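#struct-queue
[09:14] JT: dropping the first one here, sequence first, then the structure tokens:
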Amino acid sequence: QEAHSVLKEAEDMMYKRKLAESASTRSSIIRTLLQTLGSKSHETEEHAWRLQRTALALGSALELSADELNRLSVLVALHDIGKITIPKDVLLKKGPLSDAEWEMMRRHPETGYRIAAATDEFAYVAGDILAHHERWDGKGYPNGLAGKEIPLLARITAIVDAYDAMISERAYSRAMTHDEAVAEVRACAGTQFDPHLADVFITVLQKNTAVRGQSREPHSNSPGR
């Protein structure tokens, strides 16, 4: 073969191998981080994968690009990774959190941001992790962003995470039914959630029987935390 063709084929093979190795490494890191978090809280690997399915269903309905969907998948898997630094007794507390404990909990987006920003693999979702507890009305944390100041993928994560939290059975809160959770999402549209995303999400839940079926299983996430 001509030298140019051989070099081109070799470059293509090296590029494909690099992508495969990168994806494998990233998956391994995510799994390790989630296992660490799961050992001290209800944030299990199963919860993360379930949340990914729901988020990707919404992302697809919004016609996000393949790159955006991939970024969303990583984001929802790691959005609560900052909770790794929170003591287990706070994460699993059955009663109301004290002011000091709430302050500790409210810092987890910033901790997650620093963890992600410090790695080459996940720096591109660090800003979204930081913003996933912001609210449409500007009353969220840590920076009080409002409306479209909040990154789109963070707004998506906020909705799907809240829905999963509401249908989760916990020692300190009963699980809502699917219909109750949908009503709550609708009620919070325009205050906690982006109203357009809330409408699309409700439509996705109503049309996607696979997603609705998940609401009848026991789930594991921390409502409001």
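[09:21] JT: and here's the second one, same format:
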Amino acid sequence: MLLVVAIWACNFIAMRFALRELPLLAVGALRYSAAAVILLVILRLSEGSLGAPRAVWGRLVLIGLIGNTIYQTLFMVALERTTVGNTAILLSTSPLQTAVLGALFGIEKPSGRLIGALVLALAGAALVLSDRGLSLDAATLWGDLAALGAGTCWAISTIGVRALPSGLSPLRVTALTTLTGVPGLVFMAWPDLMAQSWGVVTPVAWSALTYSVVLSIGVAYLLWNASVAAVGPNRTSIFNCLIPLAAMLIAWPLLGEVPGPAQWAGGTLIIAGVILGRWSPVQLLSRQPA
């Protein structure tokens, strides 16, 4: 999960380069289409088939629609209609939403310890992003609601992955849910895809897009789903709170964005919250050797 955090933090920088030359909707459609092809090829080569039991296809389609199509659409609306700070802070609520929804649906009941850890990490994420602030403005209201809705979609899809039968490998779940999220993204991006002059796109933008396809979707989604299957949605989703801290540390040398005292204090709270929520000394001591 620490690798996932690093990949997604670097993806913010990669997307800056891609979005300088390509429309938002086109980037989303290209990312997921290419990632779906790559994942399906790997699935076919490693596991010998591309199918899934008929009884779970409905849930796979629903996870793909909510966690990929709708999530990406809301995320892009948020980027267009509100500030980056608002988007990042509101998306950081997804771990807390995951815990609440998981308890409501009976998937995983959060402990008081975990709720405290989530609140601690969320407060830290807000501090890391406090230089941009969370501004309440009627002009950005729809973007703010879109960012909050994107966090909800990610929470729902994370819980949905946990509820799938254990016989489905993380690779199969990742490949099939990525595939089912593609049609809606392509449909919405079709005008931009047809209007784009592809010959003028530079190698820098293609490299950024390749990074996002292979690592940000392919590798990171696979590791995320594997973690959900292994330790549950709550202890996986809390790592989302680390992404603003990781992005801050990466942007420091690459973009010259020097963090201030509030960012360092927030980073300390995030790390404390993740450690508190992810690793329980009691659970570690109670594990029996395999």
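[09:30] RK: nice, looked through the second one.
[09:31] RK: Residues 281-290 have pLDDT under 50 and may be disordered.
[09:31] JT: good to know. The two ends are 22 Å apart (CA to CA).
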